[in-house]
Amino acid sequence: MTQGYPKPWQSYQKQLELLMARGMVVTDQPKALEYLERIGYYRLSGYWFAFRERTELCCPINQQGSKKPSKTKPTRFPLDDFKPGTTFQNAVDLYVFDKKLRLLILDALERIEIALRVDISHGLGKHEKFAYLRPELFHESFSKQLDGKTGLTKHHVWLGKHAALINRSNEDFIRHNKEKYGLPLAVWVACEVWDFGTLSTLYAGMTEADQDDISQEYGISNGRVFASWLRSLNYLRNVCAHHSRLWNRNIVDQPKLPPIDQASTLSAFHDDPHRRARPFMLFCITQHLMKVINPSSSWGKRLKALLLNDFPNLTHLDLNLDGMGIDQDWQKRDW
Question: What is the superkingdom listed in this entry's lineage (predicted)?
């Protein structure tokens, strides 16, 4: 049994007492215990993490084995104690806001996913009804380059995921097509079981010409830029679907940006590394796609209303929507 993890099991009451000992104000202890029992200390800790005090700027030494120690960039490290005025309700309110935000984002991503199924299956189907099986119809990096560890191409791996999705599907139309026509399924049938990740990976493997044909429908001339959008939106979808904290998440794998005239809603992010590393840019990409898929959609207005009306007042903790990466003129956008 491993002894590496030092933190002991704590009862809900002990968890609450620990928070209060660190400076968190709890005005309704029975209610706070209910939240700990229903949501969990660990999940809520992702929201009160931003409420913790920080050290002054430090330059820690990075010591790795026999290598010469090196300084890392100046950083403020979190302390155990909370900032003055922190309340348990602040964390709950932020959690509730984040939940509403995730649900709204998922609503848009569902519509984008459905549109992409049509775009990709239609684009491949013009070549051949079983085009997704034909490596010669894809980019060489996807269909010919072998992985050094597995000996498989990305296309091989993708086909394995595709087969698993077909095999476990209980949809009537899949069963009907299997029984009447057998396997393989035509691309316009098979695509209906592909999830966002499957679609994103397949699009990334398409030829540049086929990519461009689809991306241009969304006003983006370069299909490789659009492929990076889909990869980032798939990450966004996974964060939301797994109920993870979203509002101030650091986006490590950031999408490429097209010329400003192709997506003016992203102009504020071109020269701002901080905002590019926050989720608001992905929300703007989502809105760009939604305006193409359904120009009359109210999704953007609902997002704006949520940010304006539901983000809790945390000014006493020096927190606001800037943590999400909003730009100065975000309210003036044509949502």
Answer: Bacteria
Percentage above 90 pLDDT, the chain: 89
pLDDT at res. 141:
98
- What is the spatial distance between Cα 81 and Cα 158, in angstroms, rounded to a whole number? 47
What is the rounded distance in angstroms from the CA atom of residue 188 to the CA atom of residue 181? 14
Give the length of the chain. 335
Long-range contacts of 21-24 (CB under 8 A, 24+ apart): 22/80, 22/81, 22/82, 23/81, 23/82, 23/83, 23/84, 23/86, 24/48, 24/51, 24/82, 24/86, 24/87, 24/88
Q: Which is nearest to 39 in space by CA: 80, 83, 87, 92?
A: 92
- Look at residues 215, 327, 187, 212 and name the one whose alpha carbon lies nearest to residue 265: 327
Of 139, 152, 39, which is closest to residue 96 (Cα–Cα)? 39
CB 212 within 8 A of CB 119: no
At residue 4, the pLDDT reads: 82
Angstrom distance (rounded) from CA 156 to CA 144: 10
Question: Given pLDDT bands bounded at 50, 70 and 90, which one contains residue 1?
Answer: low
Each residue of 14-68: pLDDT tens digit?
999 999 999 999 999 999 999 999 999 999 999 999 999 988 777 666 666 556 6
DSSP for 266-319? GGGGTT-HHHHTSTHHHHHHHHHHHHHH-TT--HHHHHHHHHHHHS---GGGT-
Amino acid at 57: L
pLDDT at 208 over 70: yes
- Three-state secondary structure call for residue 186: coil
Q: What's the average model confidence in pLDDT over 221-228?
A: 99
Tell me the sheet residues that pair with 138.
206
Nearest in space to 112 (alpha carbons), one of 297, 254, 261, 251: 297
The Cα–Cα gap between 311 and 294 comes to 27
> What pLDDT digit, counting tens, does each position of 103-113 carry?
999 999 999 99
